[in-house]
Amino acid sequence: MSPTHHPAIESWWSSGGFTLVFVATSILYLRGRHRLHSASVRVIPGWCAGSLFLGLISIWVALGSPLAIYDHELLTVHMVQHLLLMTFAPALILLGEPVVPILQGLPRFVQSALRVLFRKSLVQRARRLLSQPAFCWLVSATTLVGWHVPKAFALGLQSDLWHVVGHASFLGAGFLFWWPVVQPWPSVAVWPRWSILLYLFLATLPCDILSGFLVFSERVVYPIYLLAPRHFGMTALEDQQCAAALMWTCVTIVYLVPAALLTTRLLGVRNPSSSEMAQSDLRRTAAAPSPSDSQLVEAV
Q1: pTM of the entire structure?
Q2: Angle at the Cα of 178 (from 246 to 51), degrees rounded to 5?
Q3: Which of 90, 139, 187, 237 yields a CA-CA distance of 20 to 30 A from 174?
Q4: Is 30 helix (H, G, I), strand (E, B) or coil?
Q5: Cis? peptide before 289, omega within 30° of 0
Q6: In 3-state terms, what secondary structure has residue 39?
C-alpha cells in the first residue's frame, strides 16, 4: 500500500459514515435534551450542547478534514490527530453531559433493552472498573506509549485496519482518561477530588518522556517519514521535533487548566467563570443525592 493512500478511510468518508454518526448523535442529544426540558427533570445549559458539538467537530477535523491526508507524510499532522482524538474531543464531549440526553433520545424499546442490560451484574462490575481513575490512567498511558513504539506506529501507517484501530483506541482511551476529571452526570466520584490533581500530574509523565525522547533524539525514530514527501521546508527530523514539541506543550497546558480550576475550588476561592457556575448548578440539580446504580438504570 502506498504510504499516502487510505482506501479504508476514503471509503468511510465517501460513504458518509461519519456524517451519519455526527447527525445521529446530534439528533439523539437534542431530542433527549428536549425531553428532559419538557419534563422539567433537569436543564442542561446551552453551553454543554455547544461543547459536545465542538468535540464532534474535533473528531471530524482529525479524521475527515483535509488534515487527515497528510498524516502519512508529516508526523506533526499525525500528532495533531492524536491530540484531537485523545485530549480535546473527549473532554469537550464529556463536558456536554452526553449520557442522559442521548439515552433519553433513544427510542423507547432501545431504552427498555438497555435498562435490562444495565441491571446485569457483569455490566455493573465493568462500569465500576471503567470508572476507577487508576484503571483509566493505566489505559491512557498504555495507549499513548504503545502506539508510539516504532513497530506499532509503522503497523498503524501501513495497514488500513490497524490505522482505524489506532484512532479508535486513542478516542476510547481519551474518554476513559477524562471521565474521572470531568465527571459527567451520572458518574460518581470514586476518589477524593484532591487526588485528581495527582492523577493529572502523573498523566503528564508518559507524554513528557515520549515527547522529550522525540525532541532530543538525533535520528528519525519512524523511518517511514524519511520516504515521505517534504512539506513546509522541514526535514524529517525537524518534523519529528515539531510534533514532539506540540504534544509536550499542548498536553501540559490542557492538563493545567482543570488542575488550576480544581485547585481553586479546593482552596475555597470563589471566583468561578460563568461556565463553571453553570456546571456547578447543573451538578447540584442532578447529583443530590449522588446517583446510585439503581438511579443510573432508571435514568435510561
Answers
A1: 0.79
A2: 80
A3: 237
A4: helix
A5: yes
A6: coil
Residues 77-129 have pLDDT tens digits of 999 999 999 999 999 999 988 888 888 888 888 878 877 777 777 777 777 77
Q: At what angle do helices 121-130 and 108-118 cross, to 10 degrees?
A: 80
The Cα–Cα gap between 101 and 295 comes to: 15
Show the CA angle centred on residue 167, arms to residues 58 and 156, nearest 5°: 140
Q: How far apart are CA 85 and CA 101, in angstroms?
A: 22
Q: Is residue 67 part of a domain?
A: yes
Residue range of the domain that includes 164: 7-299
Estimate to the nearest angstrom the gap between the alpha carbon of 193 and the chain centroid.
20
Whether 2 maps to a domain, the answer reads: no
What's the whole-number mean pLDDT along residues 127-150? 91
Give how many domains the chain has, as a whole number: 1
Query: Would you say residue 1 lies in a domain?
Result: no
Distance CA 27, CA 56 (A): 13
Q: Which among 64, 146, 55 is positioned nearest to 95, based on CA atoms?
A: 55
- pLDDT tens column, 61-77: 888 788 888 888 899 99
Q: How far apart are CA 79 and CA 243, in angstroms?
A: 6
- Other beta carbons within 10 angstroms of residue 130's beta carbon come to 13
Angle at 174 (CA atoms; ends 41, 106), nearest 5 degrees: 35
Cell 465527571 belongs to residue: 183
Contact 160, 7 (CB under 8 A): yes
Alpha carbons 69 and 157: distance in angstroms, whole number = 12
The packing angle between helices 17-38 and 46-63, to 10°, is: 170
DSSP string computed for 243-255:
HHHHHHHHHHHHH
